[in-house]
Design goal:
Chains A, B: This is Crp/Fnr family transcriptional regulator. Chains A, B: Keywords: DNA-binding, Transcription, Transcription regulation. Chains A, B: It comes from Sinorhizobium saheli. The structure is a homodimer. Chain A has nine helices and twelve strands. The first copy, chain A, is an alpha+beta fold. Chain A folds into two domains: about 150 residues, Jelly Rolls (Sandwich); about 70 residues, Orthogonal Bundle (Arc Repressor Mutant, subunit A), CATH 1.10.10. In chain A, a hairpin with a 5-residue loop joins strand 5 and strand 6. Chain A binds a DNA duplex through helix 8.
DNA sequence: TCACTTGTTTGACCGGTGTCAACAACCCTT
DNA sequence: AAGGGTTGTTGACACCGGTCAAACAAGTGA
């Protein structure tokens, strides 16, 4: 971990992010004044479950996993944040300890926004409050989607879903945006189960070579 | 369904609810001006998945289940709202169709708040925005908890958890706040699985008679 | 390039949970 | 009190998916 300056690409990511996109430049600058940028290696821990977290995080590049651990030591991912996503607001607004650990799932650059500042802005600036509300609605829906998928779909169906939703409608192939490892975690699967799901889907015309996924029969996938 | 006046008990529930408790009387009155109260029987549908929902709902008494249905017709509950809980904000703020259906899980009285009014208040009144933010954080955490439980715990462990968190620390028994049916749904279980979990827990000193649960060995439950 | 580490796949096995069917318990109405 | 519907329980069974172990592939660094 290391304190850095924003590169122009990172700044662009931040400004385009769901949360900041709707805010005026001046507000963005204001938030950034009390923010710090850090780089993390894969597996670096941003914060741990049960710690106090006073800041809000935003992924400038890379990928962050939110995971909870059970008392037996096993752990389960509850969210996965790609570039542009913001997280860890809940602990702050609820004045609670973190309910999960945040771990870099690959080399990442993260900006850490001052929680107090953000909270104060949310309380005085309608735009910020509005952005926060929409952000939280979005996040809530994400989690609810995950929960519903877990409860309604088998492993293979979840993988089929993922493929369909990540392969551009007009294309027949795409690259996985992250390691299979990580994908398994997001889908609530052991890596072995993910692998098996892929091999089941081969019968429906899904070819997997490394991170490259080819779909030869979209309707077959949708039927799953 | 039927339009009603607020009884004084219902009014009290509303004012004590997580969302309204922090707001001044005048704001509450303002919201109520464009609200309507309805009574529902068990299984009555408040709204259906994919419908447009312009209002926000708050449970004055009773219980509401939020459930999604998979394409094969099976359905999974994604949330359960007891007295005092508010829901269906997401559809409004995200301007999306409902991602789940809302069904009364027992005879219930629900107040329906005008969505546009609430949205307008959220945009102009800091207190309302603040209350909404905390509400959404709370809801997000609830869903995340459910997801984590599903992924980390077995059926029996989830039931043990539920019992522990609902039995007052100083007591040795309590009544289930709703039908086992509904509990099974909330825990993501088939009713049969819930039943089996209870009978497993009998070995750890849990006695179940109808809705009455007795705990004779708390530590044993915690060990599960 | 080779060795080494890390990630992925496959097989074998087994425990957990959904499903179906039958039955028991309970509630409500008459 | 009887009867009918609903709700909860139990057993049998299948299957999904977790775990362990081993083989294999890919990436990394010297």
């Amino acid at each position: 971990m290391n304190t850095l300056q924003l590169t122009s690409r990172e700044r662009a990511t931040l400004i385009r992010s769901r949360f900041f996109a709707r805010l005026p430049q001046s507000t963005v600058e204001d938030v950034l004044k009390s923010a710090s940028v850090s780089a993390y290696e894969e597996r670096d821990v941003l914060f741990r479950q049960d710690e106090n977290v006073d800041d809000v995080f935003l992924v400038l590049s890379g990928l962050v996993r939110l995971c909870r651990m059970g008392k037996d030591g096993r752990e389960a991912d509850v969210a996965l944040f790609p570039e542009g996503e913001m997280f860890a607001e809940t602990a702050m607004f609820l004045k609670q300890r973190a309910t999960a650990s945040a771990v870099a799932a690959e080399r990442s650059v993260i900006v850490r926004l001052n929680g107090g500042k953000l909270q104060q802005l949310a309380a005085t600036d309608h735009e910020v409050a509005q952005a926060l509300i929409e952000h939280l609605c979005y996040r809530g829906k994400m989690t609810e989607d995950l929960l519903a998928e877990d409860r309604l779909l088998t492993a293979t169906q979840r993988v089929a879903n993922f493929i369909l939703s990540h392969c551009p409608k007009d294309s027949t192939s795409f690259r996985l945006p992250f390691q299979k490892n990580v994908l398994a975690g997001k889908l609530g699967l052991a890596p072995e189960a993910l692998s098996r799901a892929f091999s089941t889907l081969r019968q429906s015309g899904v070819m997997v070579r490394g991170r490259l996924i080819e779909i030869h029969d979209r309707p077959a996938l949708e039927r799953f």
